[in-house]
Amino acid sequence: MNAPSLSEAETVSVSRLKYFLAGMRGIFSLPAFILMTSFIGFSAFAAESGIARNEAMFMTFIIWALPAKLILVGMMSSGASLVACFIAVTLSSIRMMPMVASLVPEMRNDKTPTWLLIILSHFVAVTAWVYSMGQFKYVPRVARTAYFAGFGITLVTVNTLLVGLCYGLVTKFPPLVAGVLFFLTPIYFLTSIWATGRQSVVKIAFVIGVLAGPLLAVLMPGFDILVAGLGGGTVAYLIDRFFIRGRKAIANRETAA
After folding, report:
1. What percent of the chain is modeled with pLDDT above 90?
2. Other CB atoms closer than 10 Å to residue 237's CB: what's the count?
3. For residues 17 and 26, what is the distance between their CA atoms, to the nearest angstrom?
């Protein structure tokens, strides 16, 4: 007697579960490992700054992006007001908007509900964005939201628990070790963003940001990320639009003629 066949809906459901579990396995990847080492460093920073264990865990799960948490802890330690902390964290998190805008079209389909994309946008940060953009080419579009959910939810949950477990222990690390743990993440981010940049405008913006960032940090402390992001991105777009693509268009017309 033949076994009953699965309906189309059941097949899609099984496929999504398969890719959700595949996304969860991304926690064993190099990007996830590097991020976890950075969160170990964050737990030491939080402990030394007088932030309680439960507060550090709450920050990790709710704010998620590591730079924003570092800004918040630093401002709390300096005695800044709640409004000032809110504005600083918000400005820091604005940099996630282009990541969300580029990631969502890669994983949505005609049947993807908006509420699901809004929830998943919480888990978008540099590691999740870089890793997912690199893996989506191996994942069917219908299963990409499940894949990203598996990776993002697991990444946030594991790092939240890691901050709680390591809190207080890492204060015994030598300062040099703690510094190395923090430094691994920006190094990985820089190399990964360059390697995954598919368009010339991305690499132009990257170069402008690397060159302008340190200068703006001296000239406009507190607003350097915002100005470098908006200004550098605008300049990169103009260069790509009028010089690189413009020259290609002229060359194509000359070839056709």
Report:
1. 21
2. 13
3. 15
